[in-house]
Amino acid sequence: MTVPQKPIRAAGCVLWRRAASEDGLEIALVHRPKYDDWSHPKGKLKRGEDPLAGAVREVAEETGMECRPGAPLPTSCYLVDGRPKQVRYWAAEAVAGAFTPNSEVDRMVWLPPTDARLRLTQERDRPLVDALLAALHLA
């Protein structure tokens, strides 16, 4: 009998800002050289860390941005090397800060929602763009 493994707990945000584009907003995506992928800022929670606090911390670490968290978005569940991973997400408006490349994230882009959806590497990250628009009553 195999014992179910405890899921890897992680959290992140779909980071957005107001923009002059036709959608009225842009979404931040980060590029991680270790995986050569584009994703929403997210990361593993520290032991005992509140998921929302961890999401805000990860946004600051990966993007250099301070954010104002808003509505919860769908949780993403998938396997990593056979182990379940659960990532809780929130909508978060960028309010201050500036991106500085680091070893974990070497690039960050701000894109309109349509372009962000196309740039995301993982299919599972794309519905979060729609969830953000719905949460902001733009869908």
TrEMBL record:
InterPro entries associated with the record: NUDIX_hydrolase-like_dom_sf, NUDIX_hydrolase_CS, NUDIX_hydrolase_dom, Nudix_hydrolase_domain
Protein origin, superkingdom: Bacteria
Enzyme class, broadest EC rank: hydrolase
E.C. number: 3.6.-.-
Matches recorded under SUPFAM superfamilies: Nudix
Keyword Hydrolase: yes
CDD domains: NUDIX_Ap6A_hydrolase
Domain Nudix hydrolase: 6-134
Pfam assignment, any one: NUDIX
GO molecular function terms noted in the UniProt entry: hydrolase activity
Keywords: Hydrolase
Protein name from the UniProt record: NUDIX hydrolase
Annotated organism of origin: Streptomyces mooreae
Lineage: Bacteria, Bacillati, Actinomycetota, Actinomycetes, Kitasatosporales
